[in-house]
Amino acid sequence: MRMDIHGVLKKLPHRYPILLVDRVLEIESGVRIKAIKNVSINEPYFQGHFPHRPVMPGVLMLEALAQAAALLSFESAGKDADENSVYYFAGIDGARFKRPVEPGDQLLLEVTLTRAKSGIFKFAARASVDGELAVEAELMCTMRQVG
Hints:
The chain has a six-stranded antiparallel beta sheet with strand order 1-2-4-5-6-3, covered by helices on one side. The protein is built from two helices and six strands, in the order H-E-E-H-E-E-E-E. By secondary structure, the protein is an alpha+beta fold.
């Protein structure tokens, strides 16, 4: 299944400037997702990170992977985000940054669900540019009801 930006906006509560998934290329409910983030020089963080050599901050690469993981979780649970639910990071393990991500790159986000128990989801996540690994990590996330 594919999902354009309109589908992403229906599933995720994030909005500009923190929405970091542009399109879902593939999603297999309960198993894996493949999505993309188009990296543009117009991103607000490039003004200060770094003006002389713009590089996407590593924490935002991890956030993009977490948003892809959230899409997989919502799809697997048959849910959409709403004002009463929030999707939180519960942990990040083994994060390794392998190459810089610069304006003009297309970040391919690949996330696999490795475990789901008691509302905690664990994922193997990696992002690459043109087949070169940019970042990999194990992510733990949870959905919580608020309000």
